Amino acid sequence: MRIDILTILPELLEGPFSASIMKRAQEKGLAEIHIHNIRDYSTNKHKQVDDYQYGGGAGMVMTIEPIALLIDKLLSERKYDEIIYMTPDGVILDQKIANTFSLYENLIILCGHYKGVDERIREIYITKEISIGSYVLSGGELAAAVLTDSLVRLIPGVLNDETSALTDSFQDNLLSPPVYTRPPEYKGHKVPDVLMSGNFELIEKYREEQAYKRTQERRPDLLK
Questions:
Q1: What are phi and psi of 38, to 5 degrees?
Q2: pTM, two decimal places
Q3: Which of 55, 139, 182, 219 could cross-link 113 (Cys pair, CB 3.0–4.6 Å)?
Q4: Collapsing DSSP states into helix, strand and coil, what is residue 215?
Q5: Looking at the domain 2-152, which fold is it?
Q6: Which of 71, 88, 68 is nearest to 140 (CA)?
Q7: Of 11, 20, 1, residue with least CA distance to 111
Q8: What count of other Cβ atoms lies within 10 Å of the Cβ of residue 150?
Q9: Strand extents, DSSP E, the chain
Q10: Residue 215, Cβ neighbours under 10 Å: how many?
Q11: pLDDT tens-digit map of 59-113
């Protein structure tokens, strides 16, 4: 999988992809993550990528030309399955979306800033608009990192145990059950006996019951 992330602040994305699972995915050749600086495509001598909005009002708007030039360049090099814009008014990211995107070969992710991008970029190029929650961030970089992490970890071979992703919260519309490790007792709190019984049929039943109970208590909307 190849992911091209378009941003005016590439330094914000250096950390999330240089460690842990994201780093291993790239080292294994399972994911390519390319960060592009939109300013490099500005024809303005000051490399300006924003301007005042028509109609007045507070806040600047990301201009069309540098974004369009960059996207056109990428589209001339390969076919993309989706061109995604990270925006608070997009569809809320969930596990189903991550599962779908993880099956694609090439994605472009555009990070917004200021009051957002000129609407015509959305009309001409964007095929999906994604939000990570009902709140506003300073820019789309952190949201792009969240989206990228959520789908790259699902690519076969990225996780050491591929079955791990299949038992994550939300994969079956249930939250994950509680998990424990050593020691078996800590400050009077004990690991449930069934988990140490060695009876895998009972353990699986216990985990299913706990997953349902936790979902019912914390996210009853998922059970609908």
A1: -60, -30
A2: 0.91
A3: 139
A4: helix
A5: Alpha/beta knot (3.40.1280)
A6: 88
A7: 11
A8: 19
A9: 2-7, 32-37, 50-52, 60-62, 82-92, 106-111, 128-131, 185-186, 189-190
A10: 21
A11: 999 999 999 999 999 999 999 999 999 999 999 999 999 999 999 999 999 999 9
Q: Evaluate the omega torsion of the peptide bond into residue 177 and state whether it is cis, within 30 degrees of 0.
A: no
What architecture is domain 167-223? Orthogonal Bundle (1.10)
- AA letter at 30: L
Torsion on CA atoms 18, 20, 22, 24, rounded to nearest 10: 100
| Residue 73: both structure tokens together | 């360049």
Pairing of strands 185-186, 32-37: unpaired
Say if strands 106-111 and 128-131 run parallel, antiparallel, or are unpaired: unpaired
- List the domain boundaries for the chain: 2-152, 167-223
Structure tokens at 70: 């960059």
